[in-house]
Each structure stands twice: as C-alpha cells, then as structure tokens.
Specification:
alpha/beta, TIM Barrel, 2 domains, eight-stranded parallel β-barrel, about 15% strand, globular, oxidoreductase, flavoprotein, Luciferase-like_dom, NTA_MOA, FMN
C-alpha cells in the first residue's frame, strides 16, 4: 500500500537579530518601518503560508565592550508588531518569541489571549528561556537562574499560563449578542496556582479565545528542551535542516511523545531554512556564493573569529591566515549576548580544527568563516528547491520549514511566486486556506476537543 503524501507546512521568519541579511543589496529595506513587516506578511499570506514568525532580542549585543553593529541590533516590540499585522492579514498565523525567564504568566497570558481575539485565533507563542546574566541585567531578576531552573520555571510558566487561558470555559459563560458583554458566575476566569516559581490567584480578565489558547512553539536542542517540547509544545523549531541530521532529530523527538499520551501528529518539527533561487541550478550556486560573501564581510569574519578566540583580533587581516596564538579560555568573554558563545564549548579544539581546515584548503580568515558558518539550506532552480523540500518532508526529516530570506522585506517574493506553485502542483501544499485559525492551518486539535477525548478514554 502506497504511503499517503504528507502535507508540507511552510512559515516565514522575518529576520531579527542576525547576520543573514544582505544590507548592501539595493532591495534591502527597513527592519523597523511597519511597511516592511506588512509587505513580508502579505507575501506569506498570498503564498498560503501557515504563519509568520518573529524572534526577539532583549538586549543589544556587545563585543569588546561596544555595541555590535555589524548586523541587525533591534526592532519594535513583538506584541505591537503582531497586533498591527493582525489588522492587515486575514489568515496568516502570527507567532512571537516571548521570554519565560523575565516575564510573568498573567501578563503574557493576557497579551497572547488578546492577540488571539484580535486576530480571530491566529496567535502562537514561542516559549524561550534566557541563558545569560548579561541579558538579565536589563531586568530585576538578573541572570540568577541556572539551566535546570530556567527550564523548571519555563515549564511552570507555561502550565500557569495554560491555567489562565483555560479559566474561561464551561456552560456558566454566556454572552449578550448585542452588547458583547460576558455574563458569568464566580467560576469563570477564576484561577489559583501555587508552585515553586509562582503563587498567584485571582480572575483572568480575557475570555476564551477562538482557538482555545495560542499555539505553543519551543526552540531548544538540549535534552531539557526536547523533553519540554514533547510534553508541552505544539511545534518545535529545529536547527537540523540537513536530511540525515533532520531525520535523527525528528525520530528522537517524535518517539518521546508517547510517554505524555501524545501522538506523532500532536507535535510538528519545523527547521529554519535559508534558500537561494536561480533560473538554473548553476546560476543559483553562483548567486549563493555571492550572497555568502556579502553576508560575511571582512569585519564580520574577524568578529566571528573573536567568538572563539575570545581576543581582540582587529589587527589581523581578514584576507590573511588565522591567528597563531591560542584562544583565551577565561570565563570573562569578549562577546556578550550571543548564542555562538555557547556553541563553541571547547575553543582550543575548535581552533585546531579550523587551522587544519584553513591549511588544507588555503583559506583566509574570511574564507574559513564563509565555509564553516551557516550556508544556504536550499540552493537551485525553483524545480530543484521544490523537489528537495518535498523529499525532506516525505522522508521524515521535518514536517515543513520556516524560511529565512536574506533580503528584507522582499526576499520571500520569488519563493512565493515560483516555488509554492510547484509544491501545489505536486499536491503537497494547500491552494487555499481551509480553516480560520492557526490550529486549523497546522492540523492541530482544539484544546477542548483534546480534553474531551482524554476524558472519554
């Protein structure tokens, strides 16, 4: 019996604090003006994407005690942008990253429930933790939480927020159709939560939203992150966009679901993916090389090397050889607020590996960073890219992809116009939205339906 084709999920990530955007391109636009966000969102909706995703940085990053100004350094508040986008879109899901370390459940639940009402049930929350004391300096809580406590707080944060979302339900909730005023007894909106991190009680003041509660996303590759996603999330962002690595991650996370009484369809695996399109594969390959050199200037290459060396390397020539001195492995790191600092846990080993690669390939510092950094995930003609994306999804390397273009805000346009129609022709991507909420787009059950099924069983 032939296995039915999986439907592909596609989303669009408006690049945030990043080094992927090519600022020198004439088409590059603002990351602050609302017109950029509106253009990007309308393109994603025109292409029938599931949702738009916004990441968020809570502090301007620094290097050597100065603001790191070689890529995007900030933008307006996430809730403000998503609320505004709800007014200029009708179907597109609206996903925002909101930190669980430096916020409170009542406030975040109220904001997401409000967004869900404003958008007609299209909101989603990417639940994240903050890992560094540097970011925490902007908040009264500081950086006091070690990793195990961060995830403990995040789990209880989400549990508490869910209790708030679910506090408005039942037969006691009625609405006057003329005034829109909700009539309820004392039970509707009432909540009491006592735990390790939160001890709160009262009345939640936002009624049940169209999709019950926002869709929950999680991003994290650690053991704690995978378990958190398997137990509580509706979708997980993955960094494993390559086939074999993606299949291993997909299998691992999906196999964790059963212990929580969940099935494989209850959690979507959605890696971030970049792309470069050309009329032919050869043209796309050439363009991809050009884009990478635009993304990694000489100054960017030196700053990237400083993440590992933990030294000021401004005196080195980015077109010259790697430093012959070893990295400084002290705890006082030159780079503040960047995830790359955590990625390179053994700087001495990384330095040896990079020196060997540079020597074997005759690479300069800039060449090394270009070739060892993030490369475009999908490169080729529209036909090649459409076929590759479908092959990955059908091979269970993912359930779809969150696309990150290198041009903002128009970088998604060509994909929408040339790749999406090919996926639609293959019967693996929608031609029209079939529902009104983000849960509909993602094929996720309404929370009330899930609760009813579990109660019946």
């Amino acid at each position: 019996m032939t296995k039915p084709l999986k439907q592909i999920h596609l989303a669009a990530h408006f690049p945030g604090v990043n080094n992927t955007t090519v600022w020198s391109d004439p088409e590059a636009g603002s990351h602050i003006e609302f017109s950029s966000f509106a253009h990007f969102a309308r393109t994603a909706e025109r292409a029938k994407f599931d949702f738009l995703f916004l990441a968020e940085g809570l502090r301007l990053r620094e290097q050597g005690g100065k603001i790191y100004d070689l890529d995007v350094v900030g933008r307006p508040d996430t809730f403000t942008i998503l609320s505004a986008l709800a007014a200029v879109t009708e179907h597109l899901g609206l996903t925002g990253t909101i930190n669980s370390t430096f916020n409170e459940p009542y406030e975040v639940a109220r904001q997401f429930a409000s967004l869900d009402h404003l958008s007609g049930g299209r909101s989603a929350w990417n639940v994240v933790t903050s890992w560094d004391a540097f970011t925490g300096e902007n908040f009264r809580r500081g950086g006091f939480l070690p990793q195990d406590e961060r995830y403990s707080r995040a789990k209880e944060f989400l549990t508490t927020a869910t209790e708030l979302f679910d506090s408005w339900q039942g037969d006691e909730i009625l609405a006057d159709q003329e005034t829109g005023v909700f009539l309820r007894d004392a039970k509707a909106g009432a909540f009491v939560h006592t735990g390790q991190h939160f001890d709160i009680h009262g009345q939640f003041n936002v009624p049940r939203s169209p999709q019950g509660r926002p869709v929950i996303f999680q991003a994290g590759d650690s053991e704690e992150g995978r378990e958190f996603a398997a137990s509580s999330a509706d979708a997980i962002f993955s960094r494993y966009a390559a086939l074999k690595e993606g299949q291993a991650f997909y299998t691992d996370v999906k196999n964790r679901l059963a212990k929580y009484g969940r099935g494989h369809r209850d959690l979507l695996i959605l890696p971030a993916a970049t792309f470069t399109l050309g009329d032919t594969d050869a043209e796309a390959e050439e363009l991809a090389r050009e884009v990478r050199r635009q993304q990694v200037s000489g100054a960017t290459a030196l700053k990237h090397l400083e993440f590992v060396w933990n030294r000021d390397l401004s005196s080195y020539d980015p077109e010259g050889p790697l430093p012959d001195i070893d990295p400084d492995i002290s705890e006082n790191h030159i780079s503040k607020g960047r995830a790359q600092v955590r990625m390179y846990r053994d700087p001495l080993a990384i330095a040896r590996e990079w020196r060997e690669l540079a020597a074997a390939n005759n690479w300069s510092i800039r060449d090394l960073v270009i070739n060892t950094g993030n490369r475009q995930t999908f490169v080729g003609s529209p036909e090649t890219v459409a076929r590759t994306i479908n092959d990955y999804v059908q091979a269970d390397a993912s359930d779809g992809f969150i696309l990150v273009p290198h041009i903002t805000p128009s970088g998604l346009d060509t994909f929408a116009d040339k790749v999406v129609p090919l996926l639609q022709e293959q019967g693996v991507f929608r031609t029209e939205y079939e529902g009104t909420t983000l849960r509909d787009h993602l094929g996720l059950a309404h929370p009330d339906d899930v609760r009813g099924e579990r109660a019946a069983s």
